[in-house]
Design a protein that fits this description.
526 residues, rod-shaped, 26% helix
């Protein structure tokens, strides 16, 4: 029998070690081939314990079984189930079609695993130590499990197609030579991508990836001190929800979103490095509940042009760096004021949202600070968006306060003359957003002018046909620039009284124009 000649054998070939012969028979029987010692310290695939020939098999024998292995025994289904085994040399299945079920638990790989363009039904590597996994364009009909594995030189899943679930729970992945921990650009996952409590040391790249149900990074820790991005996932599509939320540490891992039992230790999602989710599409939500971000000054949590029905911005306020929401389109914004960064570190140009669902106390004063933080230079759009949302939810008074704040912010950008005129409008009728002030000013000015003119010398212009002198009507006639009460043109005032009447006329015009501006805004809003 010549190995690799394509001839299927139904006996154990010559040249196999005793360990390999046992694996061969277990493959035909479909049983688990377990070579653990029983000592947890020795059996730890990530530990310092030495595994000798009695626990070692050659990678080419493993490949032989998977690509051209013997038939199963009668009434059995052939499968490769290995536990506690060292696989020496490079396991190369590139371009191959693997029909048997594959499950490796607690195994060590001496060298990298090569799976590019290979096809599998279901393959599970659980708690294995792997120098590097190269699996670009790999195709599975079922799951690909890499849970609790440790990869010293990164994982490549570029353009891979996973039929159902991709599992990376509690995996530890270090960067490759290009600085990436996981390269998964163009990845397609049929159902869930679960990476709860993943440890990523380098850039996790998922550009243009597609996930059929949810993408969970609950309790994950992403760290990249080498470049700007720890998570680089522009144009990511997730049909349901992206979870960057806590996980309950226990056995089993509690990551379903259910509140952990009392006493369970909770590990939050933590990212030390920038996050880029630009142009992402999320069918249900992006959930950042209790997420912790550690950014440098030049790093960002970027959600540019993201579209999702709900954004749960409930993480810790980043101490440094920027939060970018420019062009994002959200239906429900669930947030708390302690999550947002301060002045200059928040950008919301073109950010559209329809409903505000604040958590905890989020008074209007804080909401105005939120808008101000996003407009280091005056921009009316965030104010107008907030006012529209408040008005649509029936909070008209708060909406007017927001628009008043917008006018006050705009005033600071105007030249001196326009700025002074703005102060007058603010003091009198608050730019028309508090029209009740006009009535108060008019009443005060009318009362003062009436008292003053009651002491004025007032010879009539026409001695024969003038009405009776009435200082109150005279003051009101001067104060109302449009209405003629038949008093202002009938009496002649001299000296300081003439200057006073002129001042009353000017103040009347000022009040009239500000009231007209306020009425115009009210009609426009209605």
């Amino acid at each position: 029998m010549t190995e690799g000649a394509g001839i299927r054998v139904d006996y154990v070939p010559d040249g196999l070690t005793a360990t390999e012969a046992g694996m061969w028979q277990a493959f035909r029987n479909g049983s688990d081939y377990d070579l653990r010692d029983g000592d947890p310290a020795v059996d730890d695939p990530h530990g310092e314990g030495t595994w000798g020939p009695e626990r070692s098999v050659r990678a080419r024998i493993v490949a032989w079984l998977l690509l051209d292995g013997p038939p199963a025994l009668a009434g059995r289904v052939s499968s490769l189930k290995l536990t506690g085994i060292l696989i020496t040399d490079t396991l190369d299945l590139a371009g191959g079609t693997v029909v048997p079920y594959v499950e490796l638990n607690g195994c060590r790989f001496e060298k990298e695993v090569l799976l590019p363009e290979a096809r599998f039904t279901t393959v599970r590597f659980v708690d294995c130590s792997v120098p590097r996994l190269e699996a670009a364009r790999v195709h599975t009909e079922g799951d690909l499990h890499l849970a609790r594995c440790r990869f010293q030189g990164g994982v490549r899943l570029t353009d891979a197609h996973i039929g159902t679930d991709l599992m990376l729970n509690q995996a530890v992945v270090h960067r490759d030579r290009r600085g990436r921990s996981i390269s998964a650009d163009g990845l397609t996952v049929g159902q869930d991508l679960q990476a709860d409590m993943l440890e990523s040391h380098g850039e996790l790249s998922m550009r243009g990836a597609k996930v059929g149900v949810s993408l969970s990074l609950r309790g994950a820790r992403l760290t990249n001190p080498y470049t700007r991005l720890a998570l680089n996932a522009p144009q990511l599509t997730v049909e349901r929800t992206l979870y960057l939320t806590p996980a309950g540490v226990g056995n089993p891992l509690q990551s379903s979103g259910i509140t952990p039992a009392r006493g369970t230790r909770v590990q939050r999602f933590e990212c030390r490095g920038g996050i880029r989710l630009d142009d992402g599409r999320f069918g249900d939500a992006v959930d950042l509940d209790r997420a912790h971000f550690v950014l440098d000054d030049d790093q960002e949590l970027s959600l540019r042009r993201v579209q999702t029905p709900e954004l749960r911005f409930l993480g810790d306020r980043p101490g440094r760096g920027k939060v970018i929401l420019s062009g994002a389109r959200i239906v429900n914004l669930v947030d708390r004021w302690t999550s947002w960064p301060g002045l200059g570190d928040l950008h919301m140009g073109g950010f559209a949202y329809e409903n505000l669902v604040p958590q905890d106390a989020f008074p209007l004063a804080r909401r105005l600070e939120w808008v101000a933080a996003a407009t280091a230079e005056y921009n009316p759009e965030p104010y107008e968006r907030l006012a529209a949302v408040l008005r649509n939810s029936g909070e008209d008074e708060d909406a007017r306060e927001v628009l008043l704040a917008k006018q006050r912010r705009r005033r600071e950008t105007l030249p001196l003359a326009a700025k002074l005129w703005g102060y007058v409008q603010d003091w009198t009728v608050a730019y028309g957003y508090r029209p009740g002030r006009a009535a108060v000013w008019m009443a005060v000015l009318w009362a003062a002018a009436s008292i003053a003119f009651s002491h004025a010398s007032h010879p009539p212009v026409n001695k024969d046909g003038h009405p009776a002198w009435n200082p109150s009507l005279f003051a009101l006639d001067l104060l109302l620039p449009v209405i003629d009460l038949g008093q202002a043109g009938q009496w002649r005032l001299n000296g300081a009284w003439q200057w006073l009447s002129t001042a009353v006329i000017l103040l009347g015009w000022i009040l009239a124009t500000t009231v007209a501006a306020g009425a115009t805004r009210l009609l426009r809003r209605s």
